[in-house]
UniProtKB/TrEMBL annotation:
Chain segments carrying region Disordered: 263-290, 501-536, 598-651
Protein name: PB1 domain-containing protein
PB1 domain ranges (all copies): 170-243
Cross-referenced Pfam families: PB1 (PF00564)
Recorded superkingdom: Eukaryota
Biological source species: Chlamydomonas eustigma
Biased composition (Basic and acidic residues): 272-288, 501-521, 620-636
UniProt keywords, alphabetically: Repeat
Length: 651
């Protein structure tokens, strides 16, 4: 038929070698951003690389999955959902996408969607593990607990007293159908959809219903959206203020809802789209419906101050001005009363600590700018075929001096800043490399495009490193050793600080969980025990893990310098590997690093261990357990061989 496009039956052409090389280069940059915990920067690089590939290329989905994982780590949960959905449209059984989207949905509070993805993940068979099963159990428990929150307990019961200083406030709802009145409790931020569903559950055999309330003028108003509910609540607040003065506490009059039967569902007002929970398919275009309230990150000390303010003054700082009906003079006096109260004073210590930490962190980042400037100066000279010496070297060292001042200023604000201390160690290594002339040129865009594939790009970098190492003057290595001694001392201090920081965070998290458990009305399910892989990931992501990885990387590079000038390098490499293992790095990652070492031929690494086979889901339990035992033994037999230097064969 005319007007229709003719669809070609020819398969799409594979990406050209130039495109694959460009993708590999961008992906390597993204991986570097990821390792540096610049997750948003990594997302930009992964998505840039993905755009270069057609939708049918498997590597494109892998890049998008990496992007989704970065969004999750950066707490950009809606973006993570959108990206995972794009992957699942092409590959519905992608275990990585299902797992990441489940976690993102859970973080957004969409527990039913999170549970659906978790169950689909288990059904794939490839991703069944204690972690995924624990995800399913936890989400089921959370959904059950949420259903129990809207209870039919009597509001006057001494077993269920109204919280006096909770935030946000709760209100009692009295829903009446004919002569039958039933009670429930809801947040004052409840939406029409949430209220309707809760009341509908109280009268399960009622059929189609509408909700009405009597306004201040005596008219019966039908509820259709959140604004209607909030208008009614506003009238209750105003009524209460007239009786008890401008003190908004939790003793609001109950919401009296008339439940009226109607003949058909067509007569029931449909909730607005922004009040409905999201459907998984709605995320395909990135249009995930909003929750009742937008999720915001607020510092704990600020929330504590809000609670202290309302406890001391009886005023809700989150209420709109027309609900409070206070003159500015009275509000000012209320704030002053809070500031002078003993309960508020510790909160300002927390605020001071927060701003101090932010200042220290900003100074570290400011110092990093000087390092980048120095590197750019060096790269320009190297690409022009010039040596970085004389005035050029002095300019680089001047940037490093400016950087050191900022790092030390950070330590003046926060004496136990492991980030600043570790950055000083890294800076000492940068100085060492500059003085040794160990500066490796980065490949230009034109050079990257000229390479045939990723392996060729990798080989070019390896050759560039070897070339830089070959130019090192053995006489300067002694001076470099002094820098390495300083590096070690600085990292030792940074590690002590990092471990203390990890302990503080762990303690705060335990205290927060204990406090949440005390405040929660619902039964909080116990958290599942972490798997070994989860423990390893937490270890490498910790402050101490970061310090150990940084130290290990420098020792790895220093061992290559020593090998290049004929010095003893093996003990230094062994020490670097021990740092990697102490940080929780995976053995395959360590092995990959060793295979890239300039002296890899002198290391008896042996063949790569074969990946353990996944048992069939149809196998009997005993057979599966037997195979699992075999898989546990396999790495022990092959493992990562000891890093002994090969003995040369005698002629």
């Amino acid at each position: 038929m005319a007007g229709k496009k003719k669809v070609s039956s020819n398969p799409p052409a594979p990406p050209s070698p130039e495109i694959l090389t460009q993708v590999a280069s961008i992906k390597a940059a993204a991986d570097k951003e990821f390792l540096g915990k610049n997750f948003i920067g990594a997302v930009e690089q992964y998505e840039t690389a993905a755009k270069l590939l057609n939708a049918d290329v498997p590597e494109k989905l892998d890049l998008l999955q990496k992007s989704a994982n970065c969004y999750l780590l950066a707490k950009k949960y809606k973006e993570a959902v959108k990206t995972c959905t794009t992957v699942l449209d092409q590959q519905p059984t992608s275990a990585g996408a299902l797992k990441t989207r489940s976690k993102a949905y859970e973080a957004l509070g969409f527990f039913k969607q999170a549970l659906s993805d978790a169950q689909n993940l288990i059904q794939t068979g490839d991703a069944v593990s204690e972690e995924t099963l624990a995800m399913e159990r936890r989400l089921k428990d959370v959904i059950s607990a949420n259903k129990a929150k809207l209870s039919n307990s009597d509001a006057s019961s001494p077993k269920n007293p109204a919280p006096q200083n909770s935030f946000p406030y709760m209100v009692t709802v009295k829903a009446t159908l004919g002569e039958d009145t039933r009670l429930l409790h809801a947040s004052i931020m409840v939406s029409y959809y949430e209220l309707y569903e809760a009341i509908k559950a109280k009268f399960p055999g009622s059929g189609p219903i509408v909700l009405k309330y009597q306004d201040k003028e005596g008219a019966m108003v039908t509820m259709t959206c959140r604004n209607d509910v909030q208008t009614y609540l506003t009238e209750l607040v105003t009524q209460f203020q007239k009786q008890a003065g401008p003190r908004l506490n939790n003793q609001l009059p109950p919401m009296r809802i008339q439940v009226v039967k109607v003949s058909s569902e067509a007569e029931v007002p449909r909730p607005p789209a922004d009040e409905l929970p999201p459907r998984p398919e709605a995320a395909k275009d990135g249009k995930v419906e909003q929750q009742a309230q937008q999720e915001l990150e607020v510092d704990d000390w600020l929330m504590d101050f809000i609670r202290a303010f309302q406890e001391i003054t009886g005023i809700d700082p989150a209420a709109q001005s027309e609900h409070i009906n206070m003159a500015s003079e009275k509000l000012t006096r209320a704030v002053e009363a809070t500031l002078s109260d003993e309960k508020a004073q510790p909160l300002f210590d927390q605020a001071s600590e927060h701003f101090r930490d932010a200042t220290a962190s900003s100074l570290v980042q400011w110092g990093n700018v000087n390092i980048v400037k120095a590197d750019r100066q060096a790269q320009q000279l190297l690409k022009a075929g010039k040596a970085v010496e004389g005035k050029a070297l002095d300019a680089m060292l001047k940037e490093y001096d400016e950087c050191e001042k900022k790092y030390n200023d950070a330590l003046k604000y926060k004496a136990d800043s492991w980030e600043a201390e570790a950055s000083l160690a890294q800076l000492e290594w940068e100085r060492c490399k500059a003085k040794l002339g160990y500066l490796v040129p980065s490949p230009s865009v034109e050079e990257a495009k000229a390479l045939a594939d990723a392996e060729a790009a990798k080989e070019q970098v390896s050759q560039a490193v070897k070339s830089a190492l070959a130019k090192i003057d053995v006489k300067k290595v002694g001076q470099g050793s002094k820098h390495i001694d300083s590096v070690t001392k600085l990292f030792e201090k940074a590690l002590v600080m990092a471990k203390a920081d990890d302990e503080r965070k762990k303690k705060r998290e335990e205290e927060r969980k204990a406090e949440d458990a005390k405040k929660s009305d619902a039964l909080v399910p116990p958290e599942p025990e972490l798997t070994e892989e989860q423990k390893r990931q937490l270890q490498i992501a910790s402050a101490a893990g970061n310090v150990l990885i940084m130290h290990g990387n420098i020792l790895y590079e220093w061992s290559q310098v020593l090998a290049a000038v004929g010095k003893e390098w093996k003990p230094v490499l062994d020490l670097g590997v021990s740092k990697f293992r102490a940080a929780g790095a995976a053995e395959p990652d360590i092995r990959a690093a060793l295979k890239n070492h300039t002296q890899k031929d002198q290391l008896d690494l042996g063949p790569d261990p074969e990946p353990p086979a996944t048992p069939s889901a149809m196998e009997a339990p005993k057979e599966t357990e037997a195979k699992a035992d075999d898989k546990m033994k396999a790495p022990e037999a092959k493992g990562l061989p000891s890093l002994e230097v090969k003995k040369k064969n005698k002629a």
